[in-house]
Design a protein that fits this description.
Structural class: mainly alpha
Distance between the termini: 26 Å
Low-confidence stretches: none
Mean pLDDT: 97
Order of helices and strands: EHEHHEHHHHEHHEHHHHH
Number of strands: 5
Bound molecules: tryptophanyl-5'AMP
Strand order of the largest sheet: 1-2-3
Number of helices: 14
Helix content: 40-55%
Largest sheet: 3 strands, parallel
Length: about 350
Amino acid sequence: SQRVFSGVQPTGNLHLGNYLGAITRFVSLQDQFDCIYCVVDMHAITVAQDPAELTRHIREVTAAFLACGIDPKRHIVFNQSQVSEHAELAWVFNCVARIGWLNRMTQFKEKAGKDRENASLGLYAYPSLMAADILVYRATHVPVGEDQKQHLELTRDVAQKFNNDFATSIAAHGFGEAFFPLTEPLIQGPATRVMSLRDGSKKMSKSDPSDYSRINLTDGPDAIAQKIRRAKTDAEPLPGEEAGLAARPEADNLLGIYAALAGTTKGAVLEDFAGAQFSAFKSALVDLAVAKLGPIGSEMQRLVGDPAYIDQVLADGADRARLIARSTMDDVKDIVGFIRKR
Ligand code: TYM
Protein backbone atom coordinates (compact mmCIF):
# COMPACT_ATOMS: atom_id res chain seq x y z
CA SER A 1 0.00 0.00 0.00
CA GLN A 2 1.11 3.54 -0.66
CA ARG A 3 1.47 6.13 2.03
CA VAL A 4 2.75 9.70 2.08
CA PHE A 5 4.63 11.21 5.03
CA SER A 6 6.21 14.62 5.35
CA GLY A 7 7.23 17.05 8.07
CA VAL A 8 7.78 20.74 8.66
CA GLN A 9 9.85 22.20 11.50
CA PRO A 10 8.11 24.67 13.84
CA THR A 11 10.96 27.18 13.85
CA GLY A 12 9.04 30.31 12.85
CA ASN A 13 8.91 32.41 9.66
CA LEU A 14 7.08 29.83 7.56
CA HIS A 15 7.69 31.17 4.05
CA LEU A 16 6.84 30.95 0.37
CA GLY A 17 9.51 28.26 -0.15
CA ASN A 18 7.88 26.02 2.44
CA TYR A 19 4.51 26.71 0.87
CA LEU A 20 5.45 26.10 -2.79
CA GLY A 21 8.13 23.46 -2.26
CA ALA A 22 6.21 21.44 0.30
CA ILE A 23 2.78 22.40 1.64
CA THR A 24 1.03 22.90 -1.74
CA ARG A 25 2.39 19.49 -2.72
CA PHE A 26 1.02 17.98 0.52
CA VAL A 27 -2.41 19.37 -0.39
CA SER A 28 -2.44 17.96 -3.90
CA LEU A 29 -1.43 14.44 -2.82
CA GLN A 30 -4.50 14.05 -0.63
CA ASP A 31 -6.68 12.58 -3.36
CA GLN A 32 -4.25 9.81 -4.35
CA PHE A 33 -2.68 8.73 -1.06
CA ASP A 34 -3.23 8.25 2.64
CA CYS A 35 -1.20 11.13 4.01
CA ILE A 36 0.49 11.83 7.32
CA TYR A 37 1.71 15.39 7.90
CA CYS A 38 3.79 16.07 10.95
CA VAL A 39 4.95 19.17 12.81
CA VAL A 40 8.44 17.98 13.73
CA ASP A 41 8.92 19.64 17.10
CA MET A 42 11.63 17.20 18.19
CA HIS A 43 13.68 18.19 15.16
CA ALA A 44 13.22 21.85 16.10
CA ILE A 45 15.01 21.44 19.45
CA THR A 46 18.23 20.27 17.76
CA VAL A 47 19.02 23.98 18.00
CA ALA A 48 17.98 26.07 21.04
CA GLN A 49 14.31 27.14 21.09
CA ASP A 50 12.47 29.39 23.47
CA PRO A 51 9.77 27.09 24.96
CA ALA A 52 6.86 29.54 24.67
CA GLU A 53 7.85 30.42 21.09
CA LEU A 54 8.13 26.73 20.21
CA THR A 55 4.57 26.12 21.43
CA ARG A 56 3.36 29.07 19.39
CA HIS A 57 5.21 27.90 16.29
CA ILE A 58 3.81 24.34 16.55
CA ARG A 59 0.30 25.82 16.44
CA GLU A 60 1.31 28.15 13.60
CA VAL A 61 2.56 25.33 11.34
CA THR A 62 -0.59 23.34 12.13
CA ALA A 63 -2.70 26.37 11.25
CA ALA A 64 -0.78 26.70 7.97
CA PHE A 65 -1.48 23.04 7.10
CA LEU A 66 -5.20 23.53 7.72
CA ALA A 67 -5.41 26.97 6.07
CA CYS A 68 -3.74 25.62 2.92
CA GLY A 69 -6.33 22.88 2.63
CA ILE A 70 -5.03 19.77 4.38
CA ASP A 71 -8.01 17.83 5.69
CA PRO A 72 -7.22 16.52 9.20
CA LYS A 73 -10.25 14.22 9.18
CA ARG A 74 -9.35 12.28 6.04
CA HIS A 75 -5.62 12.41 6.73
CA ILE A 76 -3.39 12.65 9.80
CA VAL A 77 -1.99 15.93 11.16
CA PHE A 78 -0.04 15.82 14.43
CA ASN A 79 3.10 16.94 16.23
CA GLN A 80 6.00 14.51 16.45
CA SER A 81 6.63 14.59 20.21
CA GLN A 82 3.16 13.13 20.94
CA VAL A 83 4.16 9.85 19.28
CA SER A 84 7.17 8.56 21.21
CA GLU A 85 7.72 5.73 18.69
CA HIS A 86 9.58 8.25 16.49
CA ALA A 87 12.27 8.57 19.16
CA GLU A 88 12.30 4.84 19.82
CA LEU A 89 12.85 3.91 16.20
CA ALA A 90 15.42 6.69 15.84
CA TRP A 91 17.50 4.97 18.52
CA VAL A 92 17.48 1.70 16.60
CA PHE A 93 18.44 3.64 13.47
CA ASN A 94 21.29 5.35 15.35
CA CYS A 95 22.67 1.85 15.69
CA VAL A 96 22.11 1.06 11.99
CA ALA A 97 23.36 4.29 10.38
CA ARG A 98 27.14 4.76 10.15
CA ILE A 99 29.01 7.79 11.45
CA GLY A 100 30.56 8.16 7.99
CA TRP A 101 27.11 8.61 6.44
CA LEU A 102 26.21 11.40 8.84
CA ASN A 103 29.57 13.09 8.33
CA ARG A 104 28.59 13.62 4.69
CA MET A 105 25.36 15.52 5.45
CA THR A 106 25.69 19.02 4.02
CA GLN A 107 22.85 20.42 6.12
CA PHE A 108 24.66 19.47 9.32
CA LYS A 109 27.82 21.18 8.11
CA GLU A 110 25.84 24.34 7.26
CA LYS A 111 23.84 24.42 10.48
CA ALA A 112 26.71 23.51 12.79
CA GLY A 113 28.92 26.19 11.22
CA LYS A 114 32.52 26.64 12.28
CA ASP A 115 32.04 25.64 15.92
CA ARG A 116 31.11 22.04 15.10
CA GLU A 117 32.38 20.66 18.43
CA ASN A 118 29.72 22.74 20.11
CA ALA A 119 26.76 21.60 17.95
CA SER A 120 24.21 19.41 19.73
CA LEU A 121 24.41 15.65 19.35
CA GLY A 122 20.77 15.88 18.23
CA LEU A 123 21.70 18.09 15.29
CA TYR A 124 24.19 15.46 14.19
CA ALA A 125 21.67 12.62 14.55
CA TYR A 126 18.89 14.68 12.93
CA PRO A 127 18.73 12.58 9.71
CA SER A 128 18.37 9.39 11.72
CA LEU A 129 15.26 10.79 13.45
CA MET A 130 13.99 11.89 10.06
CA ALA A 131 14.39 8.35 8.72
CA ALA A 132 12.44 7.13 11.74
CA ASP A 133 9.63 9.67 11.09
CA ILE A 134 9.15 8.25 7.63
CA LEU A 135 9.77 4.57 8.23
CA VAL A 136 7.77 4.23 11.44
CA TYR A 137 4.78 4.58 9.07
CA ARG A 138 6.55 2.60 6.34
CA ALA A 139 5.78 5.56 4.08
CA THR A 140 6.43 5.01 0.38
CA HIS A 141 6.43 8.64 -0.83
CA VAL A 142 7.82 11.80 0.75
CA PRO A 143 7.07 15.22 -0.78
CA VAL A 144 9.84 17.73 0.03
CA GLY A 145 11.82 20.61 -1.41
CA GLU A 146 15.15 20.04 -3.11
CA ASP A 147 17.13 20.78 0.08
CA GLN A 148 15.91 17.54 1.72
CA LYS A 149 17.13 15.25 -1.05
CA GLN A 150 20.28 14.11 0.74
CA HIS A 151 18.32 13.31 3.91
CA LEU A 152 15.96 11.11 1.89
CA GLU A 153 18.89 9.27 0.36
CA LEU A 154 20.10 8.54 3.88
CA THR A 155 16.59 7.30 4.74
CA ARG A 156 16.82 4.78 1.91
CA ASP A 157 20.29 3.74 3.03
CA VAL A 158 19.03 3.16 6.57
CA ALA A 159 16.05 1.12 5.32
CA GLN A 160 18.27 -0.97 3.10
CA LYS A 161 20.88 -1.63 5.77
CA PHE A 162 18.21 -2.56 8.32
CA ASN A 163 16.65 -4.94 5.77
CA ASN A 164 20.08 -6.48 5.09
CA ASP A 165 21.40 -6.62 8.66
CA PHE A 166 18.24 -8.32 9.90
CA ALA A 167 17.36 -10.26 6.75
CA THR A 168 17.25 -13.63 8.49
CA SER A 169 15.13 -12.39 11.36
CA ILE A 170 12.83 -10.45 9.02
CA ALA A 171 12.17 -13.63 7.06
CA ALA A 172 11.82 -15.74 10.22
CA HIS A 173 9.12 -13.39 11.51
CA GLY A 174 7.19 -13.74 8.28
CA PHE A 175 7.90 -10.31 6.78
CA GLY A 176 9.46 -11.73 3.62
CA GLU A 177 12.46 -10.13 1.94
CA ALA A 178 12.27 -6.56 3.18
CA PHE A 179 10.63 -4.95 6.18
CA PHE A 180 11.08 -1.26 5.34
CA PRO A 181 10.22 0.16 1.91
CA LEU A 182 12.78 2.18 -0.05
CA THR A 183 10.98 5.50 0.15
CA GLU A 184 10.64 7.63 -2.94
CA PRO A 185 11.21 11.36 -2.69
CA LEU A 186 8.64 13.53 -4.51
CA ILE A 187 10.54 16.68 -5.50
CA GLN A 188 8.24 18.17 -8.11
CA GLY A 189 6.98 21.36 -9.68
CA PRO A 190 8.52 24.67 -10.72
CA ALA A 191 9.48 25.74 -7.17
CA THR A 192 11.39 22.91 -5.50
CA ARG A 193 14.10 25.38 -4.51
CA VAL A 194 12.78 28.91 -3.98
CA MET A 195 15.66 31.36 -3.66
CA SER A 196 16.08 34.44 -1.48
CA LEU A 197 14.49 37.57 -2.94
CA ARG A 198 17.70 39.45 -2.11
CA ASP A 199 20.23 36.97 -3.52
CA GLY A 200 19.52 34.45 -6.27
CA SER A 201 22.34 32.20 -5.08
CA LYS A 202 20.92 31.60 -1.57
CA LYS A 203 17.79 29.61 -0.83
CA MET A 204 14.86 31.32 0.85
CA SER A 205 15.15 30.36 4.50
CA LYS A 206 13.44 30.81 7.86
CA SER A 207 16.70 31.91 9.42
CA ASP A 208 17.82 34.61 6.96
CA PRO A 209 18.27 37.77 9.07
CA SER A 210 16.72 39.91 6.31
CA ASP A 211 12.92 39.72 6.30
CA TYR A 212 13.08 41.11 2.74
CA SER A 213 14.70 37.85 1.64
CA ARG A 214 11.44 35.94 2.07
CA ILE A 215 7.67 36.21 1.88
CA ASN A 216 6.19 34.87 5.09
CA LEU A 217 2.84 33.09 5.00
CA THR A 218 1.66 35.59 7.61
CA ASP A 219 2.63 38.67 5.54
CA GLY A 220 -0.24 40.99 4.60
CA PRO A 221 -0.82 42.44 1.10
CA ASP A 222 1.38 45.51 1.71
CA ALA A 223 4.35 43.50 2.91
CA ILE A 224 3.99 41.04 0.02
CA ALA A 225 3.88 43.91 -2.50
CA GLN A 226 6.87 45.71 -0.97
CA LYS A 227 9.01 42.59 -0.87
CA ILE A 228 8.27 41.65 -4.48
CA ARG A 229 8.86 45.21 -5.72
CA ARG A 230 12.21 45.32 -3.92
CA ALA A 231 13.23 41.82 -5.07
CA LYS A 232 16.59 41.76 -6.85
CA THR A 233 16.49 41.38 -10.64
CA ASP A 234 18.76 42.12 -13.58
CA ALA A 235 18.22 44.88 -16.17
CA GLU A 236 17.17 42.74 -19.16
CA PRO A 237 13.55 42.23 -20.20
CA LEU A 238 12.10 38.73 -19.79
CA PRO A 239 13.18 36.15 -22.38
CA GLY A 240 10.79 34.29 -24.68
CA GLU A 241 11.65 30.82 -23.43
CA GLU A 242 13.07 28.97 -20.42
CA ALA A 243 16.55 28.56 -21.93
CA GLY A 244 16.90 32.34 -21.67
CA LEU A 245 16.77 32.11 -17.86
CA ALA A 246 19.91 30.00 -17.61
CA ALA A 247 22.42 32.57 -16.30
CA ARG A 248 19.78 34.75 -14.61
CA PRO A 249 19.09 33.23 -11.18
CA GLU A 250 16.89 36.07 -9.87
CA ALA A 251 14.73 36.11 -13.00
CA ASP A 252 14.52 32.32 -12.94
CA ASN A 253 13.42 32.41 -9.30
CA LEU A 254 10.63 34.95 -9.81
CA LEU A 255 9.40 33.02 -12.86
CA GLY A 256 9.37 29.78 -10.84
CA ILE A 257 7.41 31.49 -8.07
CA TYR A 258 4.88 32.86 -10.56
CA ALA A 259 4.50 29.49 -12.30
CA ALA A 260 4.03 27.63 -9.04
CA LEU A 261 1.47 30.13 -7.71
CA ALA A 262 -0.42 30.00 -11.02
CA GLY A 263 -0.25 26.20 -11.19
CA THR A 264 1.56 26.22 -14.53
CA THR A 265 5.10 25.98 -15.94
CA LYS A 266 7.80 28.62 -16.41
CA GLY A 267 7.57 28.11 -20.17
CA ALA A 268 3.86 28.91 -20.17
CA VAL A 269 4.41 32.04 -18.05
CA LEU A 270 7.13 33.24 -20.44
CA GLU A 271 4.72 32.93 -23.37
CA ASP A 272 2.65 35.67 -21.70
CA PHE A 273 5.56 37.85 -20.56
CA ALA A 274 8.17 37.52 -23.33
CA GLY A 275 9.91 40.88 -23.76
CA ALA A 276 8.18 42.42 -20.71
CA GLN A 277 10.08 44.61 -18.24
CA PHE A 278 10.38 43.44 -14.63
CA SER A 279 8.21 46.31 -13.40
CA ALA A 280 5.23 44.93 -15.33
CA PHE A 281 6.00 41.33 -14.43
CA LYS A 282 6.38 42.21 -10.74
CA SER A 283 2.99 43.96 -10.70
CA ALA A 284 1.36 40.82 -12.06
CA LEU A 285 3.27 38.72 -9.54
CA VAL A 286 2.13 40.95 -6.66
CA ASP A 287 -1.52 40.53 -7.72
CA LEU A 288 -1.15 36.77 -8.02
CA ALA A 289 0.73 36.37 -4.73
CA VAL A 290 -1.72 38.53 -2.80
CA ALA A 291 -4.69 36.66 -4.30
CA LYS A 292 -3.19 33.26 -3.34
CA LEU A 293 -1.53 34.04 -0.01
CA GLY A 294 -3.91 36.65 1.40
CA PRO A 295 -6.71 34.21 2.27
CA ILE A 296 -4.21 31.73 3.72
CA GLY A 297 -2.69 34.36 6.01
CA SER A 298 -6.07 35.45 7.35
CA GLU A 299 -7.26 31.88 7.87
CA MET A 300 -4.02 31.09 9.74
CA GLN A 301 -4.61 34.09 11.94
CA ARG A 302 -8.17 32.97 12.68
CA LEU A 303 -7.01 29.43 13.52
CA VAL A 304 -4.17 30.44 15.86
CA GLY A 305 -6.78 32.48 17.71
CA ASP A 306 -8.38 29.16 18.67
CA PRO A 307 -5.53 27.17 20.25
CA ALA A 308 -7.93 24.70 21.89
CA TYR A 309 -9.15 23.63 18.45
CA ILE A 310 -5.59 23.30 17.07
CA ASP A 311 -4.48 21.27 20.08
CA GLN A 312 -7.49 18.98 19.61
CA VAL A 313 -6.61 18.40 15.96
CA LEU A 314 -3.04 17.50 16.99
CA ALA A 315 -4.13 15.18 19.81
CA ASP A 316 -6.61 13.40 17.56
CA GLY A 317 -4.02 13.05 14.79
CA ALA A 318 -1.45 11.75 17.26
CA ASP A 319 -3.88 9.08 18.51
CA ARG A 320 -4.32 7.79 14.98
CA ALA A 321 -0.62 8.06 14.10
CA ARG A 322 0.36 6.19 17.25
CA LEU A 323 -1.68 3.13 16.29
CA ILE A 324 0.35 2.74 13.08
CA ALA A 325 3.66 3.63 14.70
CA ARG A 326 3.15 1.23 17.61
CA SER A 327 2.48 -1.68 15.33
CA THR A 328 5.68 -0.99 13.35
CA MET A 329 7.65 -0.63 16.57
CA ASP A 330 6.31 -3.96 17.89
CA ASP A 331 7.51 -5.64 14.69
CA VAL A 332 10.89 -3.89 14.90
CA LYS A 333 11.33 -5.10 18.47
CA ASP A 334 10.62 -8.67 17.39
CA ILE A 335 13.01 -8.39 14.44
CA VAL A 336 15.82 -6.93 16.57
CA GLY A 337 15.25 -9.55 19.28
CA PHE A 338 13.96 -7.39 22.13
CA ILE A 339 11.43 -8.87 24.57
CA ARG A 340 8.07 -7.10 24.82
CA LYS A 341 4.78 -7.65 26.61
CA ARG A 342 2.28 -9.54 24.49
P1 TYM B 1 11.90 22.45 6.88
O1 TYM B 1 11.03 22.66 8.06
O2 TYM B 1 13.19 23.17 6.77
O3 TYM B 1 11.09 22.78 5.56
C1 TYM B 1 9.79 22.25 5.32
C2 TYM B 1 9.65 21.89 3.85
O4 TYM B 1 9.86 23.06 3.04
C3 TYM B 1 10.83 22.79 2.05
N1 TYM B 1 11.60 24.02 1.80
C4 TYM B 1 11.72 24.59 0.59
N2 TYM B 1 11.22 24.26 -0.61
C5 TYM B 1 11.52 25.07 -1.65
N3 TYM B 1 12.28 26.19 -1.53
C6 TYM B 1 12.81 26.55 -0.33
N4 TYM B 1 13.54 27.65 -0.22
C7 TYM B 1 12.52 25.74 0.80
N5 TYM B 1 12.87 25.81 2.11
C8 TYM B 1 12.30 24.74 2.70
C9 TYM B 1 11.71 21.71 2.64
O5 TYM B 1 12.40 20.99 1.64
C10 TYM B 1 10.69 20.87 3.38
O6 TYM B 1 10.07 19.96 2.48
N6 TYM B 1 14.10 18.02 7.69
C11 TYM B 1 12.86 18.66 7.29
C12 TYM B 1 11.68 18.29 8.19
C13 TYM B 1 11.44 16.84 8.35
C14 TYM B 1 10.94 15.95 7.37
C15 TYM B 1 10.84 14.68 8.01
C16 TYM B 1 10.56 16.10 6.06
C17 TYM B 1 11.65 16.12 9.47
N7 TYM B 1 11.27 14.81 9.29
C18 TYM B 1 10.38 13.55 7.32
C19 TYM B 1 10.11 14.95 5.35
C20 TYM B 1 10.01 13.71 5.99
C21 TYM B 1 13.06 20.18 7.36
O7 TYM B 1 13.89 20.68 8.06
O8 TYM B 1 12.13 20.89 6.65
